[in-house]
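Risk register update: the risk of archive-format incompatibility is retired. Evidence:
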Amino acid sequence: MVLDNIGHLPADVKELETVWPQILKAILVESRSPADPAEITARMAADRDFMALVEGWDRMPTASQANAWEMIQERLWEAAKSSRAFCVRCGECCRKGSPVLFEQDRPYLASGAISRGDLVTLRRGERAYSNRLRKMVILEREQVKVREASDGRTCVFLGPGGDTCLVYDERPHQCRVMECWDPARFDTVLSLPPLTRLDLLGEGNPLKPLLEEHERRSGVMETACALKCFGEGDAAAEDKVLEAVVFDWHIREFTVERFGVDQAELDFLFGRPLIQIVGTFGFTVEADDSGRPKLVGFTDEV
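Archived output:
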């Protein structure tokens, strides 16, 4: 999160020149950097690109100042993080999203440090936030990842204090390799193929046919296509979406009753409930006057 200690845009370049070193000092404290604030301040003052933002402040219209202010603070964060090339367990990465699992994480699953109840599957075609691109993207392949807190993107393994990983000694590969002070690690890690459900369940698992039937009848890509058609006026597409949502609900109930699967494992086996995924595409399922489900569009997409 970008730190803003003064709560408003600097009124002029004189105020900006006063506050940015103060903000840098605060960021160094927050990121637990051992660097000398004066040394980092001098380094930033010698950065021509950074100082161009500062020195051109009074010539910018207000809208441009808002963008420049965010860029200035981001540059200060980057400078602070690069001043400590080691993990200080501050929890910053943990609050930006939970890790995707890779082949290297099998031992932590086998040991029980990470259970299936701790996991969620994001299916191909889902909308998900990309930290690297800093925007929502459509997933091109399935990925299994650690759950996130219901109130945001914070990893469920981040302890109550907000700066302690509950599985630090057996933390996933992504957590070990990625470095918040070196964004290049994003590309290194994300070039690896993520684990899938069948990787973890095995080809001969009796639940495999259920997963395949679920993808056939409640697939995300097919549902997204139907939603698009419905949004363009195709009333018949509504039935396809509602049938997929209902089947998604029923197969979860059946799996618990027939196979004794723990409720906590359902998001790993079948991904997030389809009714939630529908919401990420700008629609919700509501009851009409007769109590029958119907699709309703809204403007605030997740």
